């Protein structure tokens, strides 16, 4: 794991293997960003000019390495692009810094220690750089021979962040907790589905719970049958790996509010009897990303000691076809007492979430947020970097959208049009698990809403797009699991703790 330290040393004097500086576009010229003045001085004020000769433009995502001149302790300078320089007196945006730091660490595999001399004007900037750097250093090599592989960057030393200042120390600690918990979620998503089953996911939750003082309760298939969890059982019964419902709770003695988080945890989504065609199932190990984000958030709340109770519900099942699998046409008796006709076994996420939402509602939390890789329709609507937010409360939806923006996660508010509800009417049950195809993401949201307890503010995050990244890595985002929604949920818990929600 990459270490994060704060240092008072100057950019030219800290002993490190590389010093990272920022460069930006100012009109037609390239400028060195604040924080790296000492390095520029060692270049006799010509660092930007030298970089320009090497072809640097200051664009975001750009990384240029060059040897350091005499007067700089680190032998190598790495210049990362920060895009357009802000107006005089204004600071660089957090997400620009986060991404630039991630680009830097992705470039620095095999390096022991790098000094980050990027522009810091406030603790938030230090947090963004720390987060980006630790996230960019992430690699998933659990099932690879790494004897000859370069190791991720060993240590990130942040310059310009005052180590003795309480606010900076807290910012760095928060950045470490958030980044490591995002990386936990990434690990879970990247784990192959023959290794991560509902039972092993539950076991991993128990291990994390022990380490962080959380209360973990696991309902196995027998307990689920006894309790009447027809939705979770109906999805899990085609697999030799039986389902689980996990409750993982963080409590604070002074908490005044309880936030319930519900995560979709389909450890593999083959589609079931409504089998997905080839081309649509290669990445379906990612279908538990919602549950992973929920677990990570509960652990982060504990690590940060937030004054709020956070209860996570992980609805874990494997969706497989077999002789014991649910058939299209079957009617399930849900935990809520409602019956659901399964028209398409590939619309399984809403079935496991429905039972978990009913169960979570029984405890009367102050709010419920569910997170799920729920629909392909949401990916068609918003692309693969933006999650959709639906809610039964406009203010709550707006608040979550603003929080996501603040922490650097792309999201967009989506409606729950009441007229779509009747498209899920069924001739043989209280409702069907499918409605019209058009607006499929909203139909799924309307289905979930039916299982939320009366009067509880509820939001639904459909992270089917951003949960798993198939393209080339960029900024702090690697290929594979991304840790989507963790930052938003942690900030939401903090806001709830502060009594602002
Ligand atoms: N897990 C999928 C949704 C998904 C698609 C996640 C792409 C990530 C990337 C979900 O269970 C699913 O199969 N949804 C169906 C619902 C339909 C049958 C009503 C879909 O979106 O096609
Ligand atoms: Mn599915
Ligand atoms: Zn699914």
UniProtKB/TrEMBL annotation:
A Pfam family reported for this protein in Swiss-Prot or TrEMBL: Peptidase_M17_N
GO biological process terms on file: proteolysis
Coiled coil: none
Keyword Metal-binding in annotation: yes
Enzymatic class: hydrolase
Residue stretches spanning the membrane: none
Residue positions binding Mn(2+) 2: 264, 269, 287, 348
UniProt-listed InterPro entries: Leucine_aapep/pepB, Macro_dom-like, Peptidase_M17_C, Peptidase_M17_leu_NH2_pept, Peptidase_M17_N
The organism's place on the tree of life at top rank: Bacteria
Residues the record marks as active site: 276, 350
EC id: 3.4.11.1, 3.4.11.10
Family statement: Belongs to the peptidase M17 family.
HAMAP family the record matches: Cytosol_peptidase_M17
Role according to the record: Presumably involved in the processing and regular turnover of intracellular proteins. Catalyzes the removal of unsubstituted N-terminal amino acids from various peptides.
Protein name according to UniProt: Probable cytosol aminopeptidase
């Amino acid at each position: 794991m990459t270490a994060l330290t704060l240092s008072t040393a100057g950019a030219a004097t800290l002993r490190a293997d590389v010093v990272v500086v920022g460069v930006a576009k100012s009109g037609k010229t390239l400028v060195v960003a604040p924080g790296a003045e000492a390095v520029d001085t060692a270049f006799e004020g010509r660092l930007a000019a030298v970089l320009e000769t090497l072809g640097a433009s200051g664009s975001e995502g750009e990384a240029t390495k060059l040897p350091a001149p005499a007067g700089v302790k680190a032998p190598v300078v790495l210049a990362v692009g920060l895009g357009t320089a802000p107006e005089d007196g204004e600071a660089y945006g957090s997400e620009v810094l986060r991404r630039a730091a991630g680009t830097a660490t992705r470039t620095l595999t095999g390096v022991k220690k790098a000094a980050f001399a990027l522009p810091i004007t406030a603790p938030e900037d230090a947090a963004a750089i720390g987060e980006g750097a630790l996230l960019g250093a992430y690699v998933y090599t659990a099932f690879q021979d790494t004897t000859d592989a370069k190791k991720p960057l060993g240590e990130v030393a942040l310059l310009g962040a005052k180590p003795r200042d309480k606010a900076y120390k807290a910012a760095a600690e928060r950045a470490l907790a958030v980044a490591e918990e995002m990386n936990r979620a990434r690990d879970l998503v990247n784990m192959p589905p023959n290794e991560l089953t509902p039972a092993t996911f539950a076991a991993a939750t128990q291990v994390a719970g022990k380490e962080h003082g959380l209360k973990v309760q696991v309902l196995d298939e027998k307990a689920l049958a006894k309790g009447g969890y027809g939705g979770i059982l109906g999805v899990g019964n085609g697999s030799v790996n039986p389902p689980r419902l996990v409750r993982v709770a963080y409590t604070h003695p002074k908490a005044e509010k309880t936030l319930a988080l519900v995560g979709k945890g389909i450890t593999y989504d083959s589609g079931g009897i409504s089998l997905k065609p080839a081309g649509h199932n290669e990445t379906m190990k990612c279908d538990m990303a919602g549950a992973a984000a929920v677990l990570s958030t509960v652990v982060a709340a504990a690590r940060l000691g937030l004054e709020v109770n956070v209860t996570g519900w992980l609805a874990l099942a494997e969706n497989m076809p077999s002789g014991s699998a649910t058939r299209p046409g079957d009617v399930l008796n849900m935990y809520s007492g409602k019956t659901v006709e399964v028209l398409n076994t590939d619309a399984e996420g809403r079935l496991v979430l429905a039972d978990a939402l009913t169960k979570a509602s029984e405890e009367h939390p102050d709010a419920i947020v569910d997170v799920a890789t729920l629909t392909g329709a949401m990916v068609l609507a918003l692309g693969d970097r933006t999650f959709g937010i639906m809610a039964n409360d406009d203010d709550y939806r707006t608040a979550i959208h603003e929080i996501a923006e603040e922490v650097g996660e792309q999201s967009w508010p989506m409606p729950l049009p009441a007229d779509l509800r009747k498209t899920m009417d069924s001739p043989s049950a209280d409702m069907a698990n499918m409605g019209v195809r058009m607006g499929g993401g909203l139909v799924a949201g309307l289905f979930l809403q039916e299982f939320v307890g009366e009067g509880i503010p509820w939001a639904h995050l459909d992270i089917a797009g951003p949960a798993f990244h198939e393209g080339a890595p960029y900024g702090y985002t690697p290929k594979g699991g991304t840790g989507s929604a963790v930052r938003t949920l942690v900030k939401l818990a903090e806001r709830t703790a502060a009594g602002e929600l």
